[in-house]
C-alpha cells in the first residue's frame, strides 16, 4: 500500500516539477524558475460583479460561517444588513427535515474614522448533528436568502477530512482566480484554514472600510457554504493613531467572530478547535506572546491537552512565518519562533501554515532549538519531531508577488516559488495525509508541489523516502 503510494507520489512529483519549467537546484531544495507575471495586482473595482450586493431593501450580505464550538457541533453564522438592523434570527434545518429551528443572534456596529459600518450580525447555531447537511436562512420576506453547510464528522482517530489553505487573499483579479481555483479544484476542501490578511482595506486612504464590505461580498460564494477558520494578520490591525484609530483589530473583530472561549482562550486572536481528526491551534503574530502574556499562558496549557489518540493531526496556523527564505518580511517571525519552537517539537506538531510572505515555500522537518545564550548552536537542523513549515501567503492581494529570495536556498527549504495559489491537506487516516499546492496559472487539477505527510505521533518516519 505504502510502496504503491510512494511510487504514485514520485510520478506526481516528476510531473509537477516538469510542469513548472526549468528548475534550479541549489544548496537547499528546489527554487522553481516558473515564469510568471510580475506586474502588481490590481483590486477589482467597486462595480465588479463579484462585489454585487443582493437585491432588495436591507437584504443580508457578506454571509459567512465558521466553527462555533470546540468540536464541530456548532456554527457561527454572520451577515451584514446595510439599511437597518433587520432580523437577527437564523432559521435552520437538517436536509431531511422540514421542521425549522431558529436562533437569535447579536448585532454590532462600529465606526472607523469617517466610515460607519452596516449592522453586523453573529448568531451561533448549537447542538447540531455531526456529518449532516443543514440549510439556513437569513433575512426576512422577499429578501430571505438560503444557504447550506455540512457539519464535520465526529472527532475521531481515523476520520478522513480535507482542508483548503488560503492566505493573504485580498480582492484583486488574482484573488478571484485563487478563489475560483480553490472552488474548482477536484480535491474538494471541506473547510478553509485561512492564515490571515483578508481585505487589505488598509491599503487605501483612511483604511477605506468599504473594502471590508466588498471583501465580505466577494468571498461569500465560498464562506457562506463552508467554514473558514480565521487567523489574524497584520492587515487586520487597522491601527492608525493619526486618524484617531488606536484600537487594533477593530474592523476584523467586529466582523469575524470565532469560538475562542470554547478553548479557554481569553481573546479571539488565539484559540483552538477540533475538527474531524485534526486539532487546530490558531496563534496571533501581532499580540504579545512573551513569557507570562495571556497568549503564552494559554498555549503552554493548551498543548498538553491535545490527545493524539483522539485528534492525531496537530496543525498550527499563524500569520508571520518562522522559516522564510524570501527577502520580504525576513525574520519577522523570529521572536515567536524563539518563544514557542521547542514546544512544537516537544508536542510533535505535524505542520505549521503561515502567510504574510506573498509567495510559496515548504520546509523540510527542521528545528533550531539547541541554542542557549552561551553555546553558539544556532543552525537549523533536520529534526523528525519538528513540523513542516509551509508559507502560503500567495492568495493574490494588491501588494503583488514577493519575487526576491535569499541565495543560496537554505538546506531546510524544500521547495519555493513566487506564484499565486492555494493548497489542500487531505487527511486519510491517523497515519497519512496528502498535501498539495495548486498555482493559479495551472489547470484546476494540477499539483505544483506535493508531499505525503506521515503523522508525527502515529507514524513518525521520514517522509523523504516517499519523495525521491
Ligand atoms: Fe501580512
From TrEMBL:
GO terms for biological process, alphabetical: cellular response to phosphate starvation
Domain called Calcineurin-like phosphoesterase: residue spans: 162-360
Occurrences of domain Purple acid phosphatase N-terminal (ranges): 60-151
Domain Purple acid phosphatase C-terminal: start-end pairs: 386-443
Official protein name in the record: Purple acid phosphatase
GO MF, one annotated term: metal ion binding
Co-factor requirement: Zn(2+); Fe cation; Cu(2+); Mn(2+)
CDD domains: MPP_PAPs (cd00839)
GO CC field: plant-type cell wall
Range of residues in the leader sequence: 1-20
